[in-house]
């Protein structure tokens, strides 16, 4: 097995307004998070998120992108 390195990711989240065919993302916010290294890959890692300015019933989408290894 190959270990997974410590990494940093951007979480983007917000609301969706409109219909499935014609929607807009509104109140979009970004948050930088860090995931710890893991000995085994694939791996499940729990990372608590505090989404500021939005409640779970308002949340329309959540994306994780810009995943980069963190040099130690």
Automatic annotation (TrEMBL):
Residues 4-69 form the DUF3251 domain. InterPro entries: DUF3251, YajI-like_sf. Pfam families: DUF3251. Keywords: Lipoprotein. This is Putative lipoprotein. It comes from Escherichia coli. The gene is yajI_1.
């Amino acid at each position: 097995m190959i270990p997974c390195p410590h990494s940093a990711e951007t979480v983007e989240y917000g609301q969706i307004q409109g219909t499935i065919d014609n929607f807009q993302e509104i109140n979009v916010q970004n948050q930088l998070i860090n995931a710890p290294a893991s000995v085994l890959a694939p791996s499940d890692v729990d990372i608590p998120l505090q989404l500021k300015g939005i409640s779970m019933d308002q949340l329309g989408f959540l994306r994780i992108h810009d995943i980069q290894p963190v040099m130690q």
